[in-house]
Amino acid sequence: MTTDADIFVIGAGPAGLTTAYCLTKETSSVIVIEKDPLYVGGISRTVRHGDFLFDIGGHRFFSKSREVVDLWREILPDDFITRPRLSRIYYGGKFYSYPLSAFQALRNLGIFTSAACMLSYAIAKAFPIASPRSFHDWVRNKFGERLFQIFFKTYTEKVWGMSCDEISADWAAQRIKGLDLRVAVVNALKHAFRLKPKAVAAGDNVVKTLIETFQYPRKGPGMMWEAAAAKIRDRGGRILMGRELVELTYDEVQRLWHIGVATSDGKRESYTARHVVSSAPVRELMHKLSPKPISLLHARALRYRDFLTVALMTSRADMFADNWVYIHDPSVKVGRVQNFGSWSPEMVPTGMSCLGLEYFCFEDDGLWTMSDEELIALATFEIAKVGLVAPTDVVGGCVVRQPKAYPVYDDAYRDHMGVIRRDLEQSYPGLHLIGRNGMHKYNNQDHAMMTGMLTARNILAGERIYDVWQVNEDAEYHEAGASSVQAALSSERLVPRKASIQAA
Which end of the chain is more exposed for a tag (fewer CB within 10 A), N or C? Predict the structure, then answer.
């Protein structure tokens, strides 16, 4: 039987497009399908509303992986700009610099609360919880109970919609392990006394949350993925928009995949391929597999957190300088506020600004089901309540809903994914899982890309040379890094192989 493509890729996000981009250097026999009828890039796309551009979630282009940085430069060689990294925390009616400014925190919290935080930190270091299982346990061990209550609990529970005692310690270890309170305080003191920091050498363990600059495409991250898509097509690969996977059947005799796809206008299409690469949410993919996987019940237990961006267009150009502000205050629903003009001045018209208010929710809850008009009204009220913009300055709004933005790390997810992985590897040869939702791993953009790069190498080599599941297992790799792309360019970090990761 003839095949439509050697490789069929589900999803045109960073992982899927990276896989296709790397594959089409060697073969044109690649098909990519994307559910969105217009945008490539997945959650890293750039949305246009009139003359305004905005990012879904905010994507700094920073990586310790030389190969990822080289690929960014190869795809988009002339359109990166260097941007200052600035963010704050809003808590208790006051703003705190993030990373920590020791003197500002002392002034805002007051001497007694600050002393209690330091005492709590000392107690945690002297009497840590053995084998921490939850996010609460892990952060308490790392920073102390008082700092957990002030700077972690409210925001984290707002993001995930569940208690910090229900969230796995894996998530904390993956996202914030590189940040040490002592390092943050020393960094704050150096800035306070204007001490010149030493030069950063490649491989130095500078914490990612402390980097002062980052690279960003001048018209948003969508530039990267639109350019990648164009180059894939130029090499003969096909990218089919407005297509959703309906059925995925494996023929053991012919070692061939039969793929059923629905178009946005309701038509059905059929394809065949030797390999299928999926960045689709695992829970959705498993329901579409045939024969049905024995681990289907485990897939049904996986959970996702959904995401709303309410973009408010304002008539003010003199907006705050932050790229984003974390809203820890429980009196408002908004979790984070992006200032897109601070990401790149080219994303907003002259004399105006655009703020993205981010709301974390589930698809069936009240926030998700609110109308766009109601959400814009809520965002306008809450942005005024935290003192960032007056309602009279808001001249327009736009809502973008992003389902399954974040895989949930509850206390059972690791066991479920272990069963699913074993099942798929044994029963469905030629099926490759990549990316954040495809692997149910909270990957950043660079990690998602690395899973795509390694999967492409495995397919071209005809064997599993690299273990993509090891990407981002090293939490130090995830959070630590040099303070500029130039340091990453000079890094000689390796990619993960079968036995262990040596930092991607």
Answer: N
